[in-house]
Amino acid sequence: MGALGPVSIILLLFFCASVVQSRTIVKHLPGFNGPLPFYLETGYVMVDEINGGELFYYFIESEGKPSEDPLLIWLTGGQRCSVVSGLFFEIGPLKIVKAPYNGSIPELAYHPYAWTKNASIIFLDSPLGAGFSYSSNPKGYEVGDTIASLQIHKFLKKWFVDHPNYISHAFYVGGDSYAGKIVPFTAQLVAEGIEAGQQPLLNLKGYLVGNPSTGEKIDGNARIPYAYGVGIISKQLFELTQKSCVGEDYSNPINVGCAEVLDAVEQLMSEVGMQHILEPNCILSSPNPKDIIQKRRFLKDDYILQLSQPEEPPFYCRSYIHYQSYFWANDNATQTALGIKKWRS
């Protein structure tokens, strides 16, 4: 073959260019005392060119043997909940220090038992509209589970092109709660891409889900035997549900007798905290995801993706640290440190 001509050189340079839209190496975070004791990279990846939709990620390199340890992408639940939930309250190396909010930025502390001790993790704000992921055109937010999974797969292919040293690492797709619907399909898309020989060829080893949502009918119907099993409802009431709701969907009863029994069950269940039945029944510090989605079905061109300040729960509630996270994430210093694009007014 002859030497590369000018056109070939231009094409080669084009394909070698970074596909991550913007990338920030974060060495300090507001609220944390001193430099971060781990490598943190944040960035945006375009997944919807038509509407200008970009997914935002936090990448934390393994604190163990980063050249050998597996790589995990973590998706949070709740439908459009920020992955800050996974980063601060689940598997990440930082925790919010619980303290009464006084107007200053909440304090962060190092979490020594994080999964990042033995794995590199991509924490992804997905779908568009979750956390700092955004769409220039409001139509970009009109995505369901299938589109969201396809966009995550697109994100992964672009991210690995930009981080080729991780392509050979054992790779896992993980998530919790509502992500129980997204994780398996995303893993399937990755597996099908591998079988088809799509580049980059990832080293997928499996997927994992925690407290996964599997479907409204299955999850909703499971609440009744669960409530009986942990003593929220009596044996007599449980047996009455079995007698009155034969063949019924607990989440959508059509029998009047069944509906009345379920009302009694719901009344008792409302008196305990369903996130943790041994703790006080506290308000959630996040808005109802269903309400957010409903609003986004009728977006106007000037719609601003900004939620109002959550209601403050009592300090003794576990949800208080979620309340604190709102102020940390919405602080200008935090967003500057993370390299957040000014897509909101």
TrEMBL record:
<keyword id="KW-0732">Signal</keyword>
<dbReference type="Pfam" id="PF00450">
    <property type="entry name" value="Peptidase_S10"/>
</dbReference>
<protein>
    <recommendedName>
        <fullName>Serine carboxypeptidase</fullName>
    </recommendedName>
</protein>
<dbReference type="GO" id="GO:0006508">
    <property type="term" value="P:proteolysis"/>
</dbReference>
<comment type="similarity">
    <text>Belongs to the peptidase S10 family.</text>
</comment>
<dbReference type="InterPro" id="IPR029058">
    <property type="entry name" value="AB_hydrolase_fold"/>
</dbReference>
<dbReference type="GO" id="GO:0016747">
    <property type="term" value="F:acyltransferase activity, transferring groups other than amino-acyl groups"/>
</dbReference>
<feature type="signal peptide">
    <location>
        <begin position="1"/>
        <end position="22"/>
    </location>
</feature>
<dbReference type="InterPro" id="IPR001563">
    <property type="entry name" value="Peptidase_S10"/>
</dbReference>
<dbReference type="GO" id="GO:0019748">
    <property type="term" value="P:secondary metabolic process"/>
</dbReference>
<dbReference type="GO" id="GO:0004185">
    <property type="term" value="F:serine-type carboxypeptidase activity"/>
</dbReference>
